[in-house]
Amino acid sequence: MEGTTLGKYRVGRRLGAGGMGVVYVGEHELLGNQVAVKVINPELARSEGSVTRFLNEAVSAARIKHAGIVQIFDYGADATSGSAYFVMELLDGESLAERLARVGWLDTAHALRLVAQIADTLRAAHAAGIIHRDLKPDNVFLVPDPLVPGGERIKLLDFGIAKLFGDGLGGGASATRTGDVLGTPYYMSPEQCRGAGLVDHRADIYSLGCVLFRLVCGRVPFPGEGVGEILAAHIHVAPPAPRSLRPDIPEALEQLILQMLAKSPDERLQSMTAVLGAVAAVAEVCGIDGATPSGQVWVADARSSELAQTAVGAAASVGELAYAATARVAGGPVSEEAAATLAGPSEAAATMAASGGAASAEDMSQEASSSASPRRSLARGLALGLSA
Protein backbone atom coordinates (compact mmCIF):
# COMPACT_ATOMS: atom_id res chain seq x y z
CA MET A 1 0.00 0.00 0.00
CA GLU A 2 2.89 2.38 0.74
CA GLY A 3 3.74 4.49 -2.28
CA THR A 4 0.32 4.09 -3.88
CA THR A 5 -2.31 6.77 -4.38
CA LEU A 6 -5.84 6.72 -2.97
CA GLY A 7 -7.97 9.46 -4.44
CA LYS A 8 -6.04 12.70 -3.98
CA TYR A 9 -3.67 11.27 -1.38
CA ARG A 10 -0.27 9.60 -1.65
CA VAL A 11 0.06 6.82 0.92
CA GLY A 12 3.20 6.87 3.07
CA ARG A 13 4.47 4.92 6.04
CA ARG A 14 2.27 2.66 8.11
CA LEU A 15 1.23 4.04 11.52
CA GLY A 16 -0.64 1.11 13.00
CA ALA A 17 -3.43 -1.40 12.57
CA GLY A 18 -6.63 -2.48 14.27
CA GLY A 19 -9.32 -5.07 13.81
CA MET A 20 -10.95 -3.25 10.91
CA GLY A 21 -8.15 -1.49 9.08
CA VAL A 22 -4.61 -0.22 8.72
CA VAL A 23 -3.67 3.44 9.20
CA TYR A 24 -1.02 5.17 7.08
CA VAL A 25 0.41 8.66 6.84
CA GLY A 26 -0.97 10.32 3.72
CA GLU A 27 -0.21 13.50 1.82
CA HIS A 28 -2.51 15.53 -0.40
CA GLU A 29 -1.07 15.51 -3.92
CA LEU A 30 -1.66 19.22 -4.54
CA LEU A 31 -1.76 20.87 -1.12
CA GLY A 32 0.97 18.80 0.49
CA ASN A 33 -0.75 18.64 3.88
CA GLN A 34 -0.33 15.44 5.85
CA VAL A 35 -3.29 13.33 6.92
CA ALA A 36 -4.03 9.85 8.21
CA VAL A 37 -5.48 7.34 5.75
CA LYS A 38 -7.32 4.31 7.13
CA VAL A 39 -7.73 1.38 4.72
CA ILE A 40 -9.97 -1.60 5.39
CA ASN A 41 -8.18 -4.89 6.02
CA PRO A 42 -8.04 -6.93 2.76
CA GLU A 43 -9.72 -9.96 4.36
CA LEU A 44 -12.72 -7.79 5.27
CA ALA A 45 -12.98 -5.92 1.97
CA ARG A 46 -15.19 -8.62 0.39
CA SER A 47 -17.74 -8.54 3.21
CA GLU A 48 -20.52 -6.04 2.65
CA GLY A 49 -21.26 -5.92 6.37
CA SER A 50 -17.62 -5.25 7.23
CA VAL A 51 -17.35 -2.48 4.65
CA THR A 52 -20.53 -0.90 6.01
CA ARG A 53 -19.20 -1.03 9.55
CA PHE A 54 -15.83 0.37 8.40
CA LEU A 55 -17.39 3.34 6.63
CA ASN A 56 -19.78 3.83 9.55
CA GLU A 57 -16.78 5.04 11.54
CA ALA A 58 -16.27 7.90 9.08
CA VAL A 59 -19.97 8.71 8.80
CA SER A 60 -20.47 8.72 12.58
CA ALA A 61 -17.43 10.87 13.31
CA ALA A 62 -18.35 13.34 10.55
CA ARG A 63 -21.78 13.89 12.12
CA ILE A 64 -20.31 15.09 15.42
CA LYS A 65 -19.09 18.66 15.61
CA HIS A 66 -16.73 18.76 18.57
CA ALA A 67 -13.04 19.43 19.20
CA GLY A 68 -12.76 15.99 20.80
CA ILE A 69 -13.65 14.18 17.57
CA VAL A 70 -11.12 13.38 14.85
CA GLN A 71 -11.92 15.35 11.69
CA ILE A 72 -12.92 13.31 8.65
CA PHE A 73 -11.89 14.82 5.30
CA ASP A 74 -12.79 12.26 2.65
CA TYR A 75 -13.65 8.64 1.91
CA GLY A 76 -13.79 6.37 -1.08
CA ALA A 77 -12.72 3.08 -2.63
CA ASP A 78 -9.46 2.16 -4.34
CA ALA A 79 -9.96 2.09 -8.12
CA THR A 80 -7.86 -1.07 -8.48
CA SER A 81 -8.72 -3.24 -5.49
CA GLY A 82 -12.02 -1.65 -4.51
CA SER A 83 -10.86 -1.46 -0.88
CA ALA A 84 -12.67 1.15 1.17
CA TYR A 85 -10.71 3.92 2.88
CA PHE A 86 -11.25 7.22 4.60
CA VAL A 87 -9.05 10.22 5.28
CA MET A 88 -8.82 11.95 8.66
CA GLU A 89 -6.66 14.38 10.57
CA LEU A 90 -3.21 13.18 11.54
CA LEU A 91 -2.73 13.17 15.31
CA ASP A 92 0.52 13.67 17.18
CA GLY A 93 0.53 12.07 20.60
CA GLU A 94 -0.31 8.72 22.19
CA SER A 95 -3.34 6.70 23.15
CA LEU A 96 -4.60 6.64 26.70
CA ALA A 97 -3.86 2.91 26.72
CA GLU A 98 -0.22 3.60 25.87
CA ARG A 99 -0.05 6.20 28.63
CA LEU A 100 -1.50 3.80 31.19
CA ALA A 101 0.83 1.01 30.11
CA ARG A 102 3.70 3.36 30.90
CA VAL A 103 2.53 4.99 34.14
CA GLY A 104 0.03 2.48 35.58
CA TRP A 105 -2.59 4.90 36.89
CA LEU A 106 -3.34 8.64 37.04
CA ASP A 107 -3.80 10.99 39.96
CA THR A 108 -7.32 12.23 40.70
CA ALA A 109 -6.85 15.65 39.10
CA HIS A 110 -5.50 14.27 35.82
CA ALA A 111 -8.17 11.55 35.68
CA LEU A 112 -11.04 13.98 36.27
CA ARG A 113 -9.79 16.41 33.62
CA LEU A 114 -9.55 13.68 31.01
CA VAL A 115 -12.91 12.14 31.92
CA ALA A 116 -14.55 15.57 31.73
CA GLN A 117 -13.26 15.93 28.18
CA ILE A 118 -14.38 12.43 27.21
CA ALA A 119 -17.84 13.02 28.71
CA ASP A 120 -18.18 16.35 26.92
CA THR A 121 -17.23 14.70 23.62
CA LEU A 122 -19.71 11.87 24.17
CA ARG A 123 -22.36 14.42 25.10
CA ALA A 124 -21.93 15.88 21.62
CA ALA A 125 -22.07 12.40 20.08
CA HIS A 126 -25.28 11.57 21.93
CA ALA A 127 -26.80 14.89 20.91
CA ALA A 128 -26.04 13.91 17.30
CA GLY A 129 -27.83 10.59 17.85
CA ILE A 130 -24.73 8.40 18.10
CA ILE A 131 -23.82 5.83 20.77
CA HIS A 132 -20.12 4.93 20.71
CA ARG A 133 -20.48 1.41 22.23
CA ASP A 134 -16.73 0.71 22.31
CA LEU A 135 -15.24 3.27 24.68
CA LYS A 136 -11.87 2.15 26.07
CA PRO A 137 -8.40 3.66 26.62
CA ASP A 138 -7.25 2.42 23.19
CA ASN A 139 -9.90 4.64 21.59
CA VAL A 140 -8.92 7.79 23.47
CA PHE A 141 -5.97 9.66 21.96
CA LEU A 142 -4.04 12.35 23.83
CA VAL A 143 -2.65 15.30 21.88
CA PRO A 144 -0.71 18.28 23.29
CA ASP A 145 -2.82 21.44 23.57
CA PRO A 146 -1.62 24.31 25.79
CA LEU A 147 -5.10 25.88 25.74
CA VAL A 148 -6.67 22.92 27.58
CA PRO A 149 -6.36 22.51 31.37
CA GLY A 150 -3.64 19.95 31.94
CA GLY A 151 -2.10 20.68 28.53
CA GLU A 152 -3.70 17.75 26.71
CA ARG A 153 -6.80 17.39 24.57
CA ILE A 154 -8.51 14.06 24.07
CA LYS A 155 -9.57 12.83 20.65
CA LEU A 156 -12.17 10.08 20.60
CA LEU A 157 -11.44 7.39 18.02
CA ASP A 158 -13.06 4.35 16.40
CA PHE A 159 -16.77 4.79 15.87
CA GLY A 160 -16.76 1.55 13.88
CA ILE A 161 -19.51 -0.09 15.94
CA ALA A 162 -21.23 3.16 16.83
CA LYS A 163 -24.99 3.05 16.49
CA LEU A 164 -26.98 5.82 14.84
CA PHE A 165 -30.20 6.05 16.78
CA GLY A 166 -32.21 8.82 15.21
CA ASP A 167 -32.50 12.41 16.28
CA GLY A 168 -31.17 13.06 19.76
CA LEU A 169 -31.70 10.60 22.59
CA GLY A 170 -35.11 9.35 21.61
CA GLY A 171 -33.89 5.75 21.54
CA GLY A 172 -36.94 3.62 20.90
CA ALA A 173 -36.91 1.12 18.09
CA SER A 174 -33.98 2.85 16.39
CA ALA A 175 -31.63 2.20 19.30
CA THR A 176 -29.47 -0.92 19.34
CA ARG A 177 -31.65 -4.01 19.65
CA THR A 178 -29.73 -7.05 18.45
CA GLY A 179 -28.43 -10.39 19.65
CA ASP A 180 -24.85 -9.41 18.87
CA VAL A 181 -22.30 -8.77 21.60
CA LEU A 182 -20.43 -5.71 20.35
CA GLY A 183 -17.69 -3.90 22.23
CA THR A 184 -14.58 -4.66 24.28
CA PRO A 185 -15.31 -7.03 27.21
CA TYR A 186 -13.38 -5.13 29.90
CA TYR A 187 -15.41 -1.96 29.27
CA MET A 188 -18.79 -3.28 28.14
CA SER A 189 -22.05 -2.46 29.88
CA PRO A 190 -24.19 -5.28 31.32
CA GLU A 191 -26.83 -4.72 28.66
CA GLN A 192 -24.19 -5.08 25.92
CA CYS A 193 -22.85 -8.22 27.58
CA ARG A 194 -26.30 -9.82 27.48
CA GLY A 195 -26.42 -9.21 23.73
CA ALA A 196 -30.17 -8.69 23.83
CA GLY A 197 -32.65 -5.98 24.62
CA LEU A 198 -32.34 -2.24 24.24
CA VAL A 199 -28.90 -0.63 24.41
CA ASP A 200 -28.99 3.16 24.57
CA HIS A 201 -26.64 6.06 25.38
CA ARG A 202 -26.37 4.95 29.01
CA ALA A 203 -24.15 2.06 27.90
CA ASP A 204 -21.49 4.70 27.16
CA ILE A 205 -21.90 6.03 30.71
CA TYR A 206 -21.11 2.59 32.14
CA SER A 207 -18.10 2.23 29.84
CA LEU A 208 -16.82 5.64 30.89
CA GLY A 209 -17.19 4.50 34.50
CA CYS A 210 -14.97 1.52 33.66
CA VAL A 211 -12.43 3.86 32.10
CA LEU A 212 -12.45 6.14 35.15
CA PHE A 213 -12.04 3.09 37.40
CA ARG A 214 -9.03 2.02 35.32
CA LEU A 215 -7.51 5.51 35.43
CA VAL A 216 -7.50 5.84 39.21
CA CYS A 217 -7.26 2.20 40.34
CA GLY A 218 -4.67 0.92 37.89
CA ARG A 219 -6.86 -2.01 36.78
CA VAL A 220 -10.26 -2.64 35.24
CA PRO A 221 -13.27 -3.41 37.48
CA PHE A 222 -13.47 -7.03 36.30
CA PRO A 223 -10.10 -8.42 35.15
CA GLY A 224 -11.30 -12.01 34.55
CA GLU A 225 -9.40 -14.76 32.77
CA GLY A 226 -11.71 -15.26 29.82
CA VAL A 227 -14.36 -13.40 27.87
CA GLY A 228 -17.22 -15.43 29.38
CA GLU A 229 -16.05 -14.74 32.93
CA ILE A 230 -15.70 -11.02 32.23
CA LEU A 231 -19.14 -10.73 30.63
CA ALA A 232 -20.76 -12.61 33.52
CA ALA A 233 -19.06 -10.33 36.04
CA HIS A 234 -20.38 -7.20 34.32
CA ILE A 235 -23.88 -8.66 34.54
CA HIS A 236 -23.88 -10.22 38.01
CA VAL A 237 -20.92 -9.14 40.17
CA ALA A 238 -20.71 -5.87 42.11
CA PRO A 239 -17.57 -3.90 41.23
CA PRO A 240 -14.95 -3.59 43.96
CA ALA A 241 -14.97 -0.33 45.88
CA PRO A 242 -12.20 1.82 44.36
CA ARG A 243 -10.97 2.81 47.84
CA SER A 244 -10.41 -0.87 48.64
CA LEU A 245 -7.76 -0.83 45.91
CA ARG A 246 -6.45 2.69 46.47
CA PRO A 247 -7.40 4.14 49.88
CA ASP A 248 -6.26 7.63 48.87
CA ILE A 249 -9.06 7.95 46.29
CA PRO A 250 -11.53 10.63 47.48
CA GLU A 251 -14.81 9.24 48.76
CA ALA A 252 -16.80 11.48 46.40
CA LEU A 253 -14.88 10.08 43.43
CA GLU A 254 -15.60 6.53 44.58
CA GLN A 255 -19.31 7.33 44.79
CA LEU A 256 -19.25 8.77 41.27
CA ILE A 257 -17.55 5.68 39.84
CA LEU A 258 -19.97 3.29 41.54
CA GLN A 259 -22.97 5.27 40.29
CA MET A 260 -21.67 5.09 36.74
CA LEU A 261 -21.15 1.32 37.16
CA ALA A 262 -24.69 0.55 38.29
CA LYS A 263 -25.96 -2.67 36.67
CA SER A 264 -29.29 -1.16 35.70
CA PRO A 265 -29.16 1.77 33.26
CA ASP A 266 -31.94 3.39 35.29
CA GLU A 267 -29.70 3.50 38.36
CA ARG A 268 -26.81 5.27 36.63
CA LEU A 269 -26.37 8.94 35.99
CA GLN A 270 -28.75 9.40 33.09
CA SER A 271 -26.75 11.50 30.64
CA MET A 272 -23.29 12.82 29.91
CA THR A 273 -24.74 16.12 31.04
CA ALA A 274 -25.17 14.64 34.51
CA VAL A 275 -21.75 12.95 34.39
CA LEU A 276 -20.11 16.29 33.67
CA GLY A 277 -21.98 17.84 36.55
CA ALA A 278 -20.88 15.10 38.92
CA VAL A 279 -17.26 15.34 37.73
CA ALA A 280 -17.34 19.09 38.38
CA ALA A 281 -18.83 18.38 41.81
CA VAL A 282 -16.07 15.95 42.76
CA ALA A 283 -13.44 18.33 41.41
CA GLU A 284 -14.79 21.14 43.57
CA VAL A 285 -14.79 18.95 46.68
CA CYS A 286 -11.18 17.97 45.93
CA GLY A 287 -10.07 21.51 45.11
CA ILE A 288 -9.21 20.62 41.51
CA ASP A 289 -9.34 23.18 38.71
CA GLY A 290 -9.85 22.46 35.03
CA ALA A 291 -12.40 19.63 35.26
CA THR A 292 -15.19 21.88 33.99
CA PRO A 293 -15.35 22.84 30.30
CA SER A 294 -15.59 26.63 30.26
CA GLY A 295 -18.38 28.75 28.82
CA GLN A 296 -21.19 26.37 29.70
CA VAL A 297 -24.37 26.37 31.75
CA TRP A 298 -24.49 23.47 34.17
CA VAL A 299 -27.58 21.38 34.93
CA ALA A 300 -27.96 18.55 37.41
CA ASP A 301 -30.25 15.56 37.72
CA ALA A 302 -31.40 13.73 40.83
CA ARG A 303 -28.40 11.41 40.96
CA SER A 304 -25.80 14.18 40.82
CA SER A 305 -27.76 15.86 43.61
CA GLU A 306 -27.40 12.65 45.63
CA LEU A 307 -23.67 12.72 44.98
CA ALA A 308 -23.58 16.30 46.21
CA GLN A 309 -25.27 15.29 49.45
CA THR A 310 -22.84 12.41 49.97
CA ALA A 311 -19.80 14.62 49.46
CA VAL A 312 -21.05 17.39 51.71
CA GLY A 313 -21.81 14.84 54.39
CA ALA A 314 -25.33 16.09 55.02
CA ALA A 315 -28.38 16.32 52.80
CA ALA A 316 -28.85 19.76 51.30
CA SER A 317 -32.44 20.84 51.01
CA VAL A 318 -34.13 21.01 47.64
CA GLY A 319 -34.45 24.73 48.11
CA GLU A 320 -30.68 25.07 48.32
CA LEU A 321 -30.20 23.11 45.10
CA ALA A 322 -33.00 24.55 42.94
CA TYR A 323 -32.11 27.59 40.85
CA ALA A 324 -34.19 29.01 38.02
CA ALA A 325 -32.74 28.55 34.55
CA THR A 326 -32.47 32.00 33.01
CA ALA A 327 -29.23 31.90 31.03
CA ARG A 328 -28.96 31.11 27.37
CA VAL A 329 -27.86 27.57 26.59
CA ALA A 330 -26.14 26.73 23.33
CA GLY A 331 -27.24 29.97 21.73
CA GLY A 332 -30.86 29.83 22.89
CA PRO A 333 -32.85 30.34 26.09
CA VAL A 334 -33.93 27.50 28.34
CA SER A 335 -37.62 26.89 27.80
CA GLU A 336 -40.10 27.78 30.54
CA GLU A 337 -41.10 24.11 30.70
CA ALA A 338 -37.49 22.99 31.18
CA ALA A 339 -36.87 25.67 33.78
CA ALA A 340 -39.98 24.63 35.70
CA THR A 341 -38.89 21.01 35.60
CA LEU A 342 -35.42 21.84 36.85
CA ALA A 343 -36.72 24.05 39.64
CA GLY A 344 -39.45 21.60 40.67
CA PRO A 345 -39.35 19.78 44.01
CA SER A 346 -39.47 16.18 42.76
CA GLU A 347 -36.13 14.33 42.46
CA ALA A 348 -34.67 17.79 42.26
CA ALA A 349 -32.71 18.83 39.23
CA ALA A 350 -30.84 22.07 39.75
CA THR A 351 -29.80 24.81 37.36
CA MET A 352 -27.00 27.27 37.80
CA ALA A 353 -27.27 30.27 35.49
CA ALA A 354 -25.45 33.52 34.95
CA SER A 355 -27.57 36.41 33.80
CA GLY A 356 -27.08 37.08 30.11
CA GLY A 357 -24.64 34.26 29.46
CA ALA A 358 -23.26 30.88 30.42
CA ALA A 359 -21.46 30.32 33.67
CA SER A 360 -17.76 29.61 33.25
CA ALA A 361 -15.52 27.55 35.48
CA GLU A 362 -13.97 30.81 36.65
CA ASP A 363 -17.41 32.18 37.54
CA MET A 364 -18.13 29.09 39.62
CA SER A 365 -14.78 29.30 41.37
CA GLN A 366 -15.40 32.93 42.27
CA GLU A 367 -18.85 32.11 43.59
CA ALA A 368 -17.51 29.27 45.73
CA SER A 369 -15.10 31.70 47.38
CA SER A 370 -17.67 34.46 47.86
CA SER A 371 -19.38 35.41 51.10
CA ALA A 372 -22.37 33.14 50.32
CA SER A 373 -23.03 30.22 52.61
CA PRO A 374 -20.24 27.64 52.04
CA ARG A 375 -22.72 24.78 52.43
CA ARG A 376 -25.10 26.31 49.90
CA SER A 377 -22.30 27.13 47.48
CA LEU A 378 -20.81 23.65 47.72
CA ALA A 379 -24.19 21.98 47.32
CA ARG A 380 -24.83 24.03 44.21
CA GLY A 381 -21.38 23.26 42.83
CA LEU A 382 -21.80 19.56 43.46
CA ALA A 383 -25.10 19.48 41.60
CA LEU A 384 -23.69 20.88 38.38
CA GLY A 385 -24.06 19.15 35.00
CA LEU A 386 -23.31 20.31 31.45
CA SER A 387 -26.36 21.40 29.48
CA ALA A 388 -26.80 19.81 26.10
Reading off the top of the CATH hierarchy, the class of the largest domain is best stated as: Mainly Alpha
Point out poorly predicted stretches.
166-181, 295-301, 308-388
CATH architecture of the largest domain: Orthogonal Bundle
Per DSSP, the total helix count is: 14
Task: Summarize the helices and strands and which ones pair or pack.
Elements: E1 5-6, E2 9-17, E3 21-28, E4 34-40, H1 48-63, E5 72-77, E6 84-88, E7 94-95, H2 96-103, H3 108-127, E8 130-131, E9 140-144, E10 152-156, E11 163-164, H4 190-194, H5 202-217, H6 227-236, H7 242-245, H8 251-260, H9 272-286, E12 298-299, H10 302-312, H11 318-321, E13 328-329, E14 332-333, H12 336-343, E15 351-352, H13 361-368, H14 374-382
Antiparallel strand pairs: 1-2, 2-3, 3-4, 4-6, 5-6, 7-9, 8-11, 9-10, 12-15, 13-14
How would you describe this protein?
With about 400 residues, this protein is an alpha+beta fold. Mean pLDDT is about 75; it is low at about 165-180, about 295-300 and about 310-388. β3 and β4 form a beta hairpin. It folds into 3 domains: about 5-90, 2-Layer Sandwich (Phosphorylase Kinase, domain 1), CATH 3.30.200; about 95-270, Transferase(Phosphotransferase), domain 1, CATH 1.10.510.10; about 300-380, no CATH class. α3 packs antiparallel against α5 (about 200-215), α5 (about 200-215) packs antiparallel against α8 (about 250-260) and α9 runs parallel beside α10. It starts with a strand and ends in a 6-residue tail after the last helix. The chain has a 6-stranded antiparallel beta sheet with strand order 1-2-3-4-6-5, covered by helices on one side. Helices cover about 35% and strands about 15% of the residues. The protein has helices at about 50-65, 95-105, 110-125, 190-195, 200-215, 225-235, 240-245, 250-260, 270-285, 300-310, 320, 335-345, 360-370, 375-380; strands at about 5, 10-15, 20-30, 35-40, 70-75, 85-90, 95, 130, 140-145, 150-155, 165, 300, 330, 330-335, 350. It is built from 14 helices and 15 strands. The longest helix is centred in the first third of the chain and has 20 residues, at about 110-125. It is globular, with a radius of gyration of 21 Å.
